[in-house]
Structures
1.
Amino acid sequence: MKIIILGSGTSQGIPIIGCKCPVCTSSNPKDKRLRVSVYIETKTPAKDTPLKILIDTSPDFRQQMLVNNLNDIDAILYTHHHIDHIMGLDDIRQINQLHHKAVDVYGNEDTINHIKRAFSYIFDENTYKGGGIPNIDTNVITTGTFNVHGVDIVPIKYFHGPTVVFGYRIGGFAYMTDCSMIPEEEFTKLAGLDLLVIDALRYRPHPTHFSIDEAVAVTKRINPKQTYFTHMTHDLLHDEVNANLPENIQLAYDGLTISITNDVPQGGISTAA
Ligand SMILES: [Zn+2]
Ligand SMILES: [Zn+2]
Ligand SMILES: [Zn+2]
């Protein structure tokens, strides 16, 4: 399975418009953070080619596809409805046109309902379709395992302040952005991970996101082989923070590509910039 971090920044993106802080003015490309999203290619018995999964359509979706030289998506998994996670959906039109297909979209009921409101023109039969509209098939999921083109996906239900968010586990990989509290019963779904990508906003506590210290504590409990933090603010200078973190818990960066040796739990892990 191949995982590409398409974006690792908080909702404003880094650099923040007009900000002159050391992170926003850093020349290190790893300090530039588009809005959070991740792309996954995984083997499936249902297809000869890998299944291509996107988690969330950030406002930077178009740019993220271009800079990573990607042009196809089979399915989108939505974590929740916040604007930094959904606003790139309109650009799915190009995937529809290039590959002559609809894209399957999954999310919990609240998330799908919000998407139907935010993108009402997609669902309105009277919409003028002159410029094209996204061709998507929406699927409401609950907390049980569901199957996408032969691949089992496990939703992980947790809290982001008052908002319920779904993270996702695919084989040995779990993605848990926008997280401030994981209910006790969900930890069993996170056993034996090769790779975890989890929310860590900044050092100072925040009501709806894990701080670095909180994310480190929960990561040690989950005990994956490797962990990367995401959804970071401009408080975190990449190289400086990473030097103070354990080697198997590091900040992610845009474009980070990780391979885990299989699409089932207990594989090995390798990374490439
Ligand atoms: Zn967010
Ligand atoms: Zn800044
Ligand atoms: Zn959010």
2.
Amino acid sequence: MNYSHAFHAGNFADIVKHAALLAVLGRMQAAGTGLRVIDTHGGRGLYDLSASESRRSAEAERGVARLMAAGSLPAPVLALRDAVREVDPGPGVRLYPGSPRLVADRLRAQDRLTVFELNPREAGALAAALKGRPGVQVREADGFEGAPALSEGEGGRLVLIDPPFERGDDYARSAEALRRIQARRADATVMIWLPLKDLETFDAFLRELEPAGAFLVAEARLRPLRDPLRMNGCALVIASPPQGSEADLRAICSWTVEALGEGGEARVWTAAC
Ligand SMILES: C[S@@+](CC[C@H](N)C(=O)[O-])C[C@H]1O[C@@H](n2cnc3c(N)ncnc32)[C@H](O)[C@@H]1O
């Protein structure tokens, strides 16, 4: 397990994923019922962008730093900027919240959050970052394995599956986890984040999902997908998205491509299987 999200925190892909997470979470909370959020791959929860990993990659400079300096923003992107400002009042941005922190900050008394993180160092940092939060549990365990059982029960279910994709089987395991979650709760909202390198890999993943129903697919292609060795963009595949998500995702992906891309395109569509 060599992956460290510290190199990538606050990059364009985090902006897409985290703005989408806030938008989906907000819409599900507006429905009123209690919600259980499951984050299968939590990371460390809070990232110091002045640390050497972040400075070396400069990904946050090309991502969240530009977001914080941008002019007018569409509402779902503005919501992420506001969330970052709550964590780091500025000026500039040094602290960037990961997915578990963003959710934990918005948890209501009737909501619960369970976060899985397999790397002991990251899990320790995450537990420290979320210490004392009511309704929040951190598990140093495999999120693919743990998420399905937690999907059962009363109330809404929101699952974020955000693997590193350093291992080839992360695609197959994400698809399998989705099937197992849906077997327990057919109406669970499940968001899977994916890198976009080449179309063959992405299409193969979508074909693997086919027995599992209809999905909202949101792609932010920063540039044409010509070089399969680069991360040319990212995508979210969302099962059972709350109403209104399509417009949110369109706004998020379009802003990201226009503000941070190099001649790419945003595509938001429904894959009906
Ligand atoms: C992309 S990062 C997560 C970022 C986080 N979701 C966010 O948006 O802030 C992926 C994390 O998953 C962890 N990980 C890898 N395999 C795992 C598994 N099977 N179960 C739980 N965590 C895993 C890695 O250690 C890494 O910290």
